[in-house]
Amino acid sequence: MKNLPISYFLFLALLSFSAAAQNSAFNYQGSLVQNGTPANGQFDLVFRLFADSKGGNQLAPEITLENVQVTNGKFSVELSFDFQPFTSVAAQYLEIAVRPGSSTGEFTTLTPRQHLTSSPYAMKSAFSTFSVFADNATNANNALNAANADAVGGTPAVQIIKEGDFRLSNARLPLPGSADYVQNNSGSPQSASFNVAGNGKIGSSLTVQGLTQLNSNVNVGGVISGDGGGLTNLNGSNIIENSINASSLAPDSFPDARNLSQLGSLRWDQLARKVTYNGQGKALVFDGTFMWVILTDGAIRKFRVSDGGLVGFLSAGTQPGGAAFDGQNIWISDTAGNVVRKMRTYNGVVLGTYPVQNAPAGVAFDGTNIWVANTASDSITRIRASDGANLGNIACVGAFELAYDGESMWVSTNPFASLKRFRASDGVQNGSFGASSGMAGLTIDGRSVWYAQNYTTGCLIRQSSSSPGSESCVASLNTADASDAIWDGTSMWVALNNNTLLRVRTSDDAVIGLYPTVANPAAIAFDGSSVWVAGTNEVRRHPVFPVR
């Protein structure tokens, strides 16, 4: 008969014992592969024991087992070659031959022979000199049959470990979720605490979300990055002299020689302080306590106006247009989503999302209702601030920016050269007035309507709100375009695209000064004591020097 191409692997050889006395039986488990595939079915097996891996004398009669079940290549048999082959510590080898169970032909001998491990040599203990010649055979028999003969330290072996015990793969106590359990987990944060007395190493980034106290020296071999906005309660007297170079300090965030000179001459308007962020400013709105800086990507940076501290990171949607404060909440238009969102001031929670028409931009509050200019729909949507009820849409071609004078809502239209006025109580239009095209920064000082004319020969324009229709150029923009304007109670401030601020006293139209500010200024706001300007990667706060 043609030999079968069969290979096998030895998995485990164990010697089993009886309670009364030892015997030579042990369990053999193997793996049988036929033609490269785990075998299945019944096979006849012959087992022979030799002293050498090749050739040599057979140590015991062979054992033939017929119709041994093999499943997925695995089989298990019990073999017994009697006591004698295991009384020596010499090497012993097991030879196996195989044929299909349905065959009566020749067996195929598998190579190489399997070297028996030390487990079967436990039989040697049955022939130990001390066991055979024990002075007190009765005590030996008692020991063999003692109640704790099958125990470790007095504990039954089955209580310590057994095949399939879940404790072999399960985490040790304390179990996950207990108060003192710390586990490598990139998912939800754990509430566990830990105390490490030795050294440690972090191979990647480390994020700390809570309070971190360091009571010993910290040696950093790499770079610690950040803007330092989270550093508080620093004592300047504890900073080692010359450990921070003067050139490393931002001139607008610390009283350097230039700022001290300005302080001595009481030029508060030029003592600007800046805070950096990543992005481009789009809108600014003051809620009475905090200044909200809204970026073009929808991110919000919230600053405390008392000291300029950054206190919040929020989101205003994907493409914000404008913003307004209603005395309790912030309203922000989303140009891409055609909605306006109402956000709680102290925590930024969105209290409601209200649909408007296409491409909303300017947002204003009249004391009762929120007005939203829809640039792509030539309309204005009115929403009741208290409950978000939609009061309807008002036609207004080119509606862009909004400003409220206490009775009426003024609307600039771009690119159309006109100002439109609507009665706040019912939304009825009660005026339309010619104006220069390219209007930006629509604002009201209580008596007049102001805006900037974005041309090479552009001007800061004023129209009387009581008798509008005629405009006057108050100040030249010096070939710069304007992005926004605000009134501080005595002066009109205009943000120009040449990175400067123009200040004009409204009582007599006198130009007070032109001051450097952020790059690409886009929005401006007043907090009662300082003018804030948002631009590329920073917002700058300019303390206002009163003028009369």
Task: Provide a descriptive summary of the structure in words.
By secondary structure, this protein is mainly beta. The chain has 2 domains: 6-136, Sandwich (Immunoglobulin-like); 259-543, Methylamine Dehydrogenase, Chain H (7 Propeller), CATH 2.130.10. The protein is built from 3 helices and 38 strands. Strands 15-14-13-12-38-37-36 form a 7-stranded antiparallel β-sheet, with no helix packed on it. A hairpin with a 3-residue loop joins strand 36 and strand 37. The model is unreliable at 1-5, 8-21, 120-137 and 250-258 (pLDDT under 50).
In short:
The protein is mostly beta strands and 548 residues long. The protein has 2 domains: 6-136, Immunoglobulin-like (Sandwich); 259-543, 7 Propeller (Methylamine Dehydrogenase, Chain H).
- What percent of residues adopt helix (DSSP H or I)? under 10%
Quickly give the CATH architecture of the largest domain: 7 Propeller
Placed side by side, the strands forming the largest sheet appear as 15-14-13-12-38-37-36
Give the count of helical stretches.
Answer: 3
The CATH homology group name of the largest domain:
YVTN repeat-like/Quinoprotein amine dehydrogenase
Strand residue percentage: 35-45%
Distance between the termini: 119 Å
Unreliable stretches, pLDDT < 50, 5 or more residues? Answer: 1-5, 8-21, 120-137, 250-258
- What structural category characterises the helix and strand content? mainly beta
Radius of gyration, in Å, reads 44 Å
CATH class of the largest domain: Mainly Beta
- Mean of all residue-level pLDDT scores: 78
3D shape: elongated
User: How many domains, as an integer?
Assistant: 2
- How many strand segments? 38
Q: What fold name stands as the CATH topology of the largest domain?
A: Methylamine Dehydrogenase, Chain H
The biggest sheet amounts to: 7 strands, antiparallel
